[in-house]
Amino acid sequence: MRIRISWAGGSVTATLDSTPTSEALWDALPIESSVNTWGDEVYFAVPVEAGREDDATDAVDPGTVCYWLAGSALALPFGPTPISVGPESRLASAANVLGRIDGDHRALAEVGDGDTVRVERDG
């Protein structure tokens, strides 16, 4: 499953793994949402309800696509957050791992707090 995340200044694609949360997100597409930023992470609410999966974690590699359980939000860390230790991306709390951004995840640095993003199926 490939998705496209776009905003006024650009876009990235991501490949999702086959997980219950990824499939729920896929079924909810397309969606638009307003972005929040936290360090080198963008996150935004999505109309998906999901429980904690076995591999849920709060520390991921930059470029990981996550579903943040506490906020029912897609979390897209592209670098360190305010609570990171070293180069990891540490989320505020546990998230389900959905997949990875294709290509350069640092493009997400262009997304600003309050920007509107659109998530849709790609291809």
Based on CA inertia axes, which overall geometry fits? globular
Structural class of the secondary elements? mainly beta
The overall pLDDT average reads 96
Gyration radius from CA atoms, angstroms: 13 Å
**Helix share bin:** under 10%
Give the ordered list of helices and strands. EEHEEEEEEEE
Q: N- to C-terminal separation?
A: 9 Å
Strand count, sense and barrel status of the largest sheet are: 10 strands, antiparallel
**What percentage of amino acids are in beta strands?**
over 45%
Number of helices: 1
Give the low-pLDDT segments: none
Number of strands: 10
Give a verbal description of the structure.
- This protein is globular.
- With 123 residues, it is mainly beta.
- The model has no long low-confidence stretch (mean pLDDT 96).
- It contains one helix and ten strands.
Can you give keywords for this protein?
46% strand; mainly beta; 7% helix; 10 strands; ten-stranded antiparallel sheet; globular
Q: What is shown here, in short?
A:
This protein has 123 residues and is mainly beta. It has one helix at 20-28; strands at residues 2-7, 10-16, 31-34, 36-37, 41-45, 57-60, 64-68, 73-77, 89-101, 116-121.
Please specify the SSE layout and strand pairing.
Blueprint: E1 2-7, E2 10-16, H1 20-28, E3 31-34, E4 36-37, E5 41-45, E6 57-60, E7 64-68, E8 73-77, E9 89-101, E10 116-121
Antiparallel strand pairs: 1-2, 1-10, 2-9, 3-10, 4-5, 5-8, 6-9, 7-8, 7-9
